[in-house]
Design a protein that fits this description.
Shape of chain B: globular
Radius of gyration of chain A: 25 Å
Number of strands of chain A: 0
Structural class of chain A: mainly alpha
CATH superfamily of chain A: MetI-like
CATH topology of chain A: MetI-like fold
Shape of chain A: globular
Largest sheet of chain B: none
Number of domains of chain A: 1
Strand content of chain A: under 5%
Structural class of chain B: mainly alpha
Helix content of chain B: over 70%
Order of helices and strands of chain B: HHHHHHHHHHHHH
Strand content of chain B: under 5%
Largest sheet of chain A: none
CATH topology of chain B: MetI-like fold
Number of strands of chain B: 0
Number of helices of chain A: 13
CATH class of chain B: Mainly Alpha
Order of helices and strands of chain A: HHHHHHHHHHHHH
CATH class of chain A: Mainly Alpha
CATH superfamily of chain B: MetI-like
Number of helices of chain B: 13
Oligomer: heterodimer
CATH architecture of chain A: Orthogonal Bundle
């Protein structure tokens, strides 16, 4: 309420905001429509209809002979392994950076009440600012771009896929970890602080016990995303099912694509189920 | 977090299952570590780290010639356009399907209290429900990059297949989220409307939708943040935007230009995140 009262003199008429927003949106959207070359007719012209028919005819029935399925076991297994190892690296990156990016740990709040002097404040701010910036770079570059670059750097195979998930998801985990840690109830921390606990003691016995269920839950949720990502990563040569999907698509073997999507669906479903069960237990 | 008193009854069982889950996760990690044939120790010290360092060194400095910058800006705007139009399309796809996937609108709950549907009517409505749910599930299970491949095949290269891919995949995701919002609305205003004599349409328009729309907007904005990242890689399969330029730059070893493009991705993703967060704060 107070904020609204503060703001109202600055805005000539509060109710004009929706109109300005709508107008801005309409203009941007119109320009975007042109740039994106949206042309619904393309979907219904003769060529498109022929292509759709070709796709559907080619896709049905899906290819489920034993030979093909046997060939898929390895990439499917690899997809799961890439996602798991990727998450291990992501935690290894996200946890330390996330801790540094937690303002209540590094430079303000209960733990730093006794820090006086601007110089020390600024010094404490440096690791915080650096880790925030680093996390933002890691997570803003899509994992496929990371994967493509790692393929160039270390060669084809599952390894670049693992690194890509590790780096991109490390950035996301770090950011969300720091948000979770910042929202922890400060009173137990104050109590620990008052009873003479050091910083690591406060982190271990105050912060983690309170935040752990949420940290685990978010990490598992990210794993669900990682299995989807690792399945697609193969498009740029980073192992897993994606490589096979791209190959089948390029060769117009649509009945193989459908089977591959089915395998992907089963994998994703299984991971969602496991992760959902554990998350319900942990946070419940 | 639940108070300890309420959990202590099942504490022992909880501890057992959590130990089991932790052990299972550990086994999964070990299995993945061996399967993925990755030597993480070597990454820290050895060849892989050197390869990555060499590659990163090659990226610098970014190509800031006016040609490269103009190309990056054009790509960024195209990516922005794809994500915006794709997100709007996804809302258009999601909204009707979400209505069809909401039981409380189709055949049960406050809307149908005291006025039993004939069993034939109910059967038809259940069929609509199941069909909508299935369509949504298919839309969201197929990853956007595979939708992009399919639409490139159907309508040809360019940003338009990217728009369609985002629209379908995100439509499936949003449809499910919208449906959950619709089923979770507070029933009391609906009962109030009903008792004052509103018909079903009135209850939906003045009771359900006003409660759901802010949530819809918030989810749509959140998915826009996801879509800007997806739009940035869509070009890998020929669907325009920055992705296409990144693909070319990586394939032709134009490392300095690649860094310019990656900077463009970073700037744009950060801008869209900030814009979306600001809008969400204003809307809710």
């Amino acid at each position: 309420m107070a904020r609204r009262a503060d703001r109202s003199p600055a805005l000539p008429d509060k109710s004009s905001f929706p109109y300005v927003l709508t107008a801005a949106f309409a203009v941007t959207f119109a320009l975007a429509l042109r740039t994106a070359q949206v042309d619904p007719r393309l979907l219904f012209d003769r060529q498109a209809l022929t292509n759709i028919t070709r796709f559907v005819r080619g896709a049905l029935p899906p290819r489920i002979d034993a030979e093909f399925l046997a060939m898929l076991v390895r990439p499917a297994v690899e997809t799961v392994q890439i996602s798991v190892m990727g998450m291990v690296i992501a935690i290894a990156i996200g946890l330390p950076l996330g801790l540094l990016a937690t303002s209540s740990l590094t430079w303000r709040g209960v733990l730093h009440e006794r820090i006086t002097g601007v110089g020390r404040r600024v010094l404490a701010f440096v690791p915080y600012g650096t880790s925030r910036a680093l996390l933002s770079v890691l997570r803003s570059i899509p994992e496929y771009v990371w994967a493509f670059m790692f393929v160039r750097a270390v060669g084809l195979g599952p390894f670049p896929g693992i690194l890509a998930i590790g780096v991109a998801y490390g950035g996301m985990l770090g950011k969300v970890y720091s948000e979770i840690l910042e929202s922890v109830d400060p009173q137990p921390l104050e109590a620990l602080h008052a009873s003479g606990a050091g910083k690591s003691g406060i982190v271990l016995y105050g912060l983690f016990p309170e935040a752990l269920p949420h940290l685990i839950s978010y990490t598992l949720y990210r794993w669900e995303c990682a299995i989807r990502a690792s399945a697609i990563m193969g498009f740029v040569g980073a192992g897993g099912l994606g490589q096979q999907i791209e190959l089948s698509m390029r060769m117009f073997q649509f009945h193989e694509v459908i089977t591959l999507l089915g395998v992907l669906l089963v994998l994703v479903g299984a991971v969602d189920l496991i992760s959902g069960r554990i998350r319900a237990q942990v946070v419940g | 977090m639940p108070p300890i008193a309420t959990t202590s009854v099942s504490q022992r069982g909880w501890r057992w299952t959590s130990c089991l889950a932790a052990a299972g996760m550990l086994a999964l990690v070990v299995w993945s570590y061996q399967g993925a044939r990755v030597d993480l120790g070597a990454l820290m010290t050895g060849e892989a780290a050197a390869e990555i360092a060499t590659y990163v060194a090659k990226l610098f400095p970014p190509d800031l010639s006016s040609h490269a910058v103009r190309d990056a800006i054009a790509g960024a705007w195209e990516t922005f356009a794809i994500s915006l139009v794709g997100s709007v399309l996804s809302v258009c796809v999601a909204f009707p399907l979400a209505l069809g996937a909401t039981r409380t609108i189709l055949y049960r709950g406050v809307l149908y209290e005291g006025q039993n549907l004939s069993s034939a009517q109910k059967l038809v409505r259940m069929a609509v429900f199941i069909a909508s749910k299935t369509v949504l599930a298919i839309f969201r299970t197929v990853p956007e990059i595979i939708w992009a491949l399919i639409f490139v095949f159907v309508v040809g290269l360019g940003p338009f297949p990217g728009v369609l891919a985002l629209g379908f995949h995100t439509g499936g995701v949003l449809g499910r989220l919208f449906g959950e919002v619709l089923e979770d609305v507070d029933p009391r205003p609906l009962e109030a409307l009903q008792s004052t004599g509103s018909g079903r349409l009135g209850i939906v328009l003045y009771g359900i939708l006003p409660q759901a729309l802010p949530q819809f907007a918030s989810y749509a904005l959140y998915r826009w943040e996801v879509n800007i990242r997806a739009a940035a890689v869509m070009g890998f399969v020929g669907a325009g935007g920055l992705g296409q330029r990144i693909h070319v730059a990586i394939s032709l070893f134009h490392e300095h230009q690649l860094l310019t493009l990656i900077l463009a991705v970073y700037v744009m993703v950060t801008l869209v995140d900030a814009l979306s967060a600001w809008l969400r704060a204003r809307l809710l």
